[in-house]
Amino acid sequence: MKLNVGFVGLTHLGVNYAIASAMKGFNVVCYDESLDVISSLKKKKIPFYEKDTEKNLKEKFKKFKFTNKITDLKNCDLVFISQDVPTDNKGKSNLLKIKKLIKEIIKIIKNKCDLIILCQVPPGFTRSIKWPSNNLYYQVETLIFSNALERALSPERIIIGKDLSKISKKYNFFLKKFKCPILEMNYESAELAKISINIFLISSVTSTNILSEISENIGANWSDVSNALKLDKRIGKYAYLKPGLGISGGNLERDLETFRNFLKFNKIYENYSRNIKEISNHRKDWIYNQFKKITKDFKNLKKIGVLGLAYKENTNSIKNSPSISFIKKISLNNKYTINVFDPKIKKLSEHRNINICKNINDVMKNCDILFVATPWKIFKKIKLKKFKNIIAIIDSYNLINFSTDQKKIKHISMGN
Length: 416
Description:
Layout (H helix, E strand, L loop, with lengths): L3 E5 L3 H12 L3 E5 L3 H8 L10 H7 L4 E4 L10 E4 L14 H13 L5 E4 L18 E4 L8 H6 L4 E5 L6 H8 L5 E5 H32 L3 H9 L20 H16 L3 H15 L1 H12 L5 E5 L14 H9 L6 E5 L13 E2 L3 H5 L4 E4 L19 E4 L14 E4 L3
């Protein structure tokens, strides 16, 4: 069966699923209202960093049609609404743009086409769409920044929200190409499944951060504790057991906000989500809190080095980044010179009073105190011997190896 598959909205979500679809053998029509996005993709350039996306775009380029003409979607058999839902800094979603976009699409595509909501929406959203066909679905996306294409290609399962009707032959043919279990349920169950997945992840992250902070306070070593937890089958080796700088990136915050609204509406356990948010914000300030402590001991510090700007490794996303939050706070004091480096971020338009360096060495030779804020693997290769100027290292993820002759450098890491 030959299918033309359309994607509406070429953000991180849409681009990765579109490339995955092309890699599965489908012809793909990619629509976005932004001329800049379409122009970039036509030049085989991805407007963000994500492992292997650009390489596979180039390899499957003949499978794509990139367009900012909405009428080019007319002959598609499946159309995915893949525009990211914008959120504010508190995680609150703005659904107005998505609703408007869906209304425009419905006017264009034929009734026999299947319409699939791929972007993240709250329970009740899909059922509210007035679509003159039974072929309306909600598909749960579980992409992860830094590993998105692999997850789009090889999901653990695909969760489909639908009405009482069976999945259409065309959509079923498409889904079977991904060779994984397909879980069918009603719209509301699928929409809640997405939120539930993220709430469980949030709970794991939060518990780890609480316990690793206790570890810091009592002199325990969280690495040893987490190794014990990984061997427990009820928790397991894939659990979120590495302490981190709170919940960042946008997607988890969005579901936490939706979850908070449910609890508030039903007047149950309202403090639960509030406490999670407070714990996350407290842990997000870990670097800054260590900075305040250490400046009391070393009052003459003037040169600050920061390694890592992205909110996590293998992405160039800085949404709700703890590193950016930290830099904003210390840059208010003109006393400090701030040098930073991230492998995938070469400029920051909003932060003019910091110096973005070309490499790690340029940061390290020009700092008194070094902050490691993102767990990029490249930072594990740092050799300290030639940097005699560094007094202290705030190493959030315990990446840097210390030899016995470097005891003079104060080293602080999470969970220790």
